[in-house]
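User: Hey, my collaborator sent me this sequence without any context and asked if I could get a structure. I don't really work with proteins. Can you help?
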Amino acid sequence: IGDEEEVVDGSCLKCLESAGESNTLSLSLDCNELDDASMRNLGPAIAAARDSCFSRGDRHLPSLDLSLQENVVTEHTCHLLSKCSVARYPFAQCILTRLCLSWNPIGDAGMEALSPILHHLKHLEVEGCCLADPSVDVLLRASPSRWALERLLLGYNDSIQEASLARLLTIGCGIKELKELGLAGNQIREIGGACAATLVCHHTSLQSLCLSRTPLGTGGVRAFCDSMLARELESAMSDLTNLRYHSRPLSLDFSWCSIEEDAVCHLVKTLICGRADVRCQGGRTWKLAALNLQACVNAKPGLRSGNTGELMVTTLEQIAQTSTELPPIDLRHNLLSASQQARTQLLGMAS
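Assistant: No problem. I've predicted the 3D structure and written it out in structure-token form, which is a compact way to encode the shape of the chain:
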């Protein structure tokens, strides 16, 4: 973008002020090596736009979708955004509704600085932000039941321990509007896998869960399946079968998780077929819309290429014979032979 002084000059302020009631302004400053000094005028510009709306008698602030991905801003910019975004009079509102800070070193101090506006945000993306357990504490302290949050991307913060992520997954059921949760590249294993299944089964709005590139492994997948089957039986016994007629589409991503092939087959059967002793998948409030299994099959040592994936392909063919509809399943990068790829393509899958 050239001169850093032009990032938030008069034209930016003019755009913010011109966003009328019910309008949304999208401002993307991604990948510009901006630091805290470069952003020093952004806070006053947002505050001026906020105050201008009220001075005109508008009762509702415009919505600002702000993306600062892949810059070098820190907790100081977070504090600035938090301070300048909220209007207290005539009633509390926040001009920021969508915020992307992914791949900036904001750290736990940055999340703490954002805490006053967290429950106002609909989208929050903080992937690769050097976050640890205190950041999860900040998120959970913000009373999830009050959140408007629809999208939370928290991936690639591998200093967050599994116990904290398990708490987030468990309490995440209380974020009523949550539709997408991204935890790629984080410390998800057996405990996290079981909690993820609970979230999938109990949440009523969730449509996408990403566990890609986590150390989930075979144990984590089996824990996920066991928890899901247990929750499914509980729901069926609670006479919730009517909910399946209002099922939500759900996309799951287990790509690059290094899972043994028999566990992958167990996962597919669990997600598509459910429990054999629960008629018509009673109790499910979701329907599998897409399953990403890219590069997830962990080939056993000494197994020749071409034998890897045979059990998985055969399992899919068997399911296809009994299931009326298979969801899209991505099997790319799993070392399938040419004949195996042809067989999966006949089933309508990417291989």
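In plain terms: The longest strand covers residues 286-292. You can pass these tokens on to your collaborator as they are.
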